[in-house]
Each structure stands twice: as C-alpha cells, then as structure tokens.
C-alpha cells in the first residue's frame, strides 16, 4: 500500500500543493475525498496556518486508499495528510456534536499505524495528528486517558482543534 500514490491527490498539483499562508481543508462531499481549498472559508472544517509559506501537499486517504481488514471490511482511515519540509500531519475532519472524539482518534491511530507499517523507511522531523471539528474548534482532550493511549501507541500527541499550525 502506497500512501503517496498520485491517485490520492486530485491529479492537479495546483489543487494538491500550496504555499498559501492560510488555506482550508474540506470534507463536504459524501463518499468523496477531502480536499484543500483556498476559495470558500465557510466550508473549511480545518484552517491551516502556514505563515512560513512552506510548500504543502495534501494527500487524501479516506475515500481514496482502499485498506481492508482481514475480514474483508474496509478499515477506518483518517481523511488525509499534509506533508511539507520533512514534516507530516495526519488529519481527521469532523462536523459532529457528539461522539466525534473516540471515532476520530481511532481513525487517526489506525492510519498512523498502517502508514508506519507501509513506509518504515520514511522518517520525519515533525509528526503530528489533528482531529479537527468545525463545531468544536478547541476541545480539551490533552489530559484524558484516550489521548495518553493514543500517544503510547503512535508516539504522537493528538491535537483536537481546527486550526492546524505548520
């Protein structure tokens, strides 16, 4: 499984790569990939703060990479990942009031572990995981048991907020 397959990008680098200081991530189309957006802030589930204007690539994972469990069912996956300057950020986008935390952290954790197994040769200076929820822009999840379990399993502290700072 190749998380960097061009299939999981829109095929147009102008849509997948940006150096914009601020842009958004959207997931507003049922059964379609999440995507990077510059034009419609009202649809942004997550806001990306790229004030250093890194060249950032967004790669969709959910509704793109077909990852199956041993029983044949689809594996739960996060929406996508941002890569830039030796860094990787896994992102799950939610627009829910309830039960988003456990579900979203589970999707991120599964994806990170699958990514590590698929790409053991890849190392990053910075690894982050964001659970962004437009209905809960900042959510105090850093001190709970689930966040600690996530950190123990992945080596990454989950950030539950909708502003992603590069």
Task: Set out the fold topology.
Blueprint: H1 13-16, E1 17-18, E2 22-26, E3 35-37, E4 46-49, E5 56-60, E6 80-84, E7 87-94, H2 100-118, E8 126-133, H3 145-154, E9 158-160, E10 163-165
Parallel strand pairs: 4-10, 7-8, 8-9
Antiparallel strand pairs: 1-5, 2-3, 2-4, 5-6, 6-7
How would you describe the overall organization of this protein?
Helix 2 (100-118) packs parallel to helix 3. This protein starts with 12 loop residues before the first helix and ends with a strand. It is α/β, with parallel strands linked by helices and 166 residues long. Helix 3 (145-154) links the parallel strand 8 and strand 9 (158-160). The protein is globular. It has three helices and ten strands, in the order αβββββββαβαββ. The longest helix is centred in the middle third of the chain and has 19 residues, at 100-118. The strands form two sheets. The chain has a six-stranded mixed sheet with strand order 1-5-6-7-8-9. A four-stranded mixed sheet has the order 3-2-4-10, with no helix packed on it.
List keywords for this structure.
alpha/beta, 10 strands, 166 residues, 20% helix, four-stranded mixed sheet
Main beta sheet, described? 6 strands, mixed
Strand content: 25-35%
Query: What Rg do the Cα atoms give?
Result: 15 Å
**Morphology call:** globular
Please provide the count of β strands. Answer: 10
Helix percent band: 10-25%
**Weakly predicted, low-confidence segments:** none
Order of helices and strands: HEEEEEEEHEHEE
